[in-house]
Amino acid sequence: MPDIDMDAPGKTLMLMGNEAIARGALEAGVGFVASYPGTPASEILPRLAEVAKRRNLYAEWSINEIVALWNANAAATAGIRSMASMKQNGTNVALDAIANLMERGLRGGGGMILVNADDPGRRNSPNEQDTRGIAKMLDIPLLEPGDFQEAKDIIPWLFDLSEELDLMVMVREVAKIGHTRGNVTLGELPNREQKARFELVPKIPSFGQTNLHARVHEKLKRAMERFETAPFNRYIGPETPELLVISCGASFLYTMEAVGILGLQNRVGVLKLGTLWPLPEKLVEKHLRKTQQVLFVEEVHPFVEQSVMEFTASLGPDGPRPYFYGKRSGHVPEYGELTPDNAIKAIAGIMGISYQARDPEYARNVQAASREEVIMRLGSLCAGCPHRASYWALHRALRLDGRDGFATGDAGCMSAGFGPGGYFVAKIGNCMGGGAGLADGYGKLKQFGFNQPVIGGEGDSTFFHASIPALLNAVWNRSNFTLVVYDNSTTAMTGFQPHPGVGMTAMGDPGKTVPIEDVCRAFGVRVEICDPFELEKTTQVLLDVLRDEDHGPRVVIMRHECELQRGRREKRPYEVSVNPDKCLGESCGCDRLCVRVFRCPGLRWEEQTGKSEIDEVICSGCGLCADICPQGAIEKKSTGGR
User: Fold this and answer.
1) Can you list the domains of the chain with their CATH numbers?
2) Using CB atoms within 10 A of its CB, is residue 7 exposed (0-12), middle (13-18) or buried (19+)?
3) Label partner for 41 (CA 20 to 30 A): which of 18, 124, 502, 584?
4) Measured in Å, how far apart are the chain's first and last C-alpha atoms?
5) Three state DSSP letters for 55-115
6) Inter-CA distances, 240 with 25, 123, 287, 319, 599, Å
7) pLDDT tier at 376 (50, 70, 90 boundaries)?
8) Are 413 and 486 in contact (CB under 8 A)?
9) What is the distance between the alpha carbons of residues 239 and 511, in angstroms, rounded to a whole number?
10) What residues have CB less than 8 Å from 190, skipping those under 6 apart?
11) Which helix (H) or strand (E) holds 624?
């Protein structure tokens, strides 16, 4: 992995899109960066944090996205170029701050950029969302890089624009840009000193409250003028194309590949837009007048498609009137991540070309072989994951309690609670903090005859991010539920980033540790702390807490470090093996409890012997399977590793 602050102008590196954005921020002289972990944006902040001390910048994992935005806003108004990065769900969290920031501006201070990473196809997200609509709704100048070089180059250009307009500006990227690699030619790194000072009299004066919105729209008009000649918009193709494709972001790369494969370079033109809002209307009109057919290829919603159609309608009877194809016409999917095949199919259909990617018989054979040879795997937790022990204990406690109790779920690793990896303990969930928030609501339904025990589930990072307000509300209103915090001492799902409970900052410095139990006890609630690998004790504690319904909400902290994190420092705590003389296989009566229900990836069923075995490559040596085997056939021997 190359040093992101390599001082080598003109050198070409293979960088991820997120690394390119980080490099662009360094070339722009960024001084303050803040974020909350969220894939596909997670790599931007840590790459900057790695070089923060030698580049004299400040990098922070904030408690959540709205705090990250507030912090970056403060730096900008004190004259320091700042950047906040987050995924689409995080942008939702920060919306209130964004809306107010756009009208009030940056007081003539340093520039400020919001980097938003969308996740078409929801590979790493609880929902699929196109955040470009937020830019239009809240009057944010919006750009989107179409390749890896642009991901770097767009950042310094936008910092200059932000300072010129006295507005925060937004970059939208998608996972296929952020998480794939391409060639990036480095520019110069500045050596300028930045000194923070909040001017009591702003350099750019504010107007009366009633004029704030009008002022933003004046700034958007200036942004549109700059966008008309922005280097991130370009046209490729014949002077008068039979078909004009308007595309942006990663979809531009798919479009260019499709045009090349179909051999239509002399018939199809591609207008690649990097400035998406406000629309560069003169540039768009110029190209609309040269064709009779326009296809829009973009992810996910028809944002550019609708903007161009609205603009075209405003041009009156003398304006261009091409036929528009895209999501509205059904030529491009309305949801999900696009591929070059989507672009090929749309362009070939409009141009009347018959195209077959491969022989149909070959495609059928591949599908048949995949059904026979590819092993279908349901979602699971990692070998040795402490959440497996927590879910096992929760499942037992709820069954023993016998009152049809259930748990709410949350994002991240906690999402396993909805499936077989978490024994279907979680029945309903929402966004981050929703586990506690929903449980708080269920805990107030007694007057309607509700008497089922409810367990609100949250991870440790999520507890700090979004669960504290729900718990405080529950204490205030005496809601009846148990909050379980699955504390594995890291933000595991997005890359093991630290949080306030572990006392480490993004730049590797010691931070003030904020124990979860101290926060909860400050609210006056009962708090129990368990190691979920002590199954019997944990189950009994859960049963006792579930039945303690006279004092409002209760908290159980299931604390055991993430195995992937622990395994980097220490050897396996146990050597685990299956005693073939004790394992009765199909004759046990447990119905393959270890491999069918417990489902740790470190266990496998050996068809030839009809017994379970330990996969020594995958097994982490946690020893939990030895505790659940009804025959005692799984044995563990301490290595002294814990």
Assistant:
1) 12-228 (3.40.50.970), 234-351 (3.40.50.920), 386-566 (3.40.50.970), 574-638 (3.30.70.20)
2) exposed
3) 502
4) 32
5) HCCEEEECCCHHHHHHHHHHHHHCCCCEEEEEEHHHHHHCHHHHHHHHHHCCCCCCCEEEE
6) 38, 39, 9, 17, 61
7) low
8) yes
9) 60
10) 27, 28, 29
11) helix 624-628
Which residues does 616 contact at the CB level (< 8 Å), separation at least 6?
Answer: none
- Amino acid making up residue 533: F
Q: Where would I find the beta strands (DSSP E) of 373-495? A: 406-409, 426-429, 454-459, 482-487
Cβ(614)–Cβ(576) below 8 Å: yes
CA distances from 559 to 104, 187, 383 (A): 44, 46, 17
Q: Is 495 within 8 Å of 42 (Cβ atoms)?
A: yes
Q: Is 53 helix (H, G, I), strand (E, B) or coil?
A: helix
User: Which amino acid type is present at position 510?
Assistant: P
- Is the sign of the CA dihedral 69, 72, 76, 82 positive or negative? negative
Q: What are residue 234's phi and psi, to 5 degrees?
A: -155, 155
Alpha-carbon gap, residue 457 to 465, rounded angstroms: 14
Q: Shortest CA distance to 288 belongs to which of 265, 276, 305?
A: 305
pLDDT at residue 42 tops 80: yes
Kind and range of the H or E run holding 272 = strand 268-272
CA 553 to CA 564: how far, in whole Å?
32
Q: Which of 588, 587, 581, 583 is nearest to 603 (CA)?
A: 583
Dump pLDDT digits (tens) for 599-616.
888 888 888 888 888 888
- Percentage of the chain beyond pLDDT 90 is 58
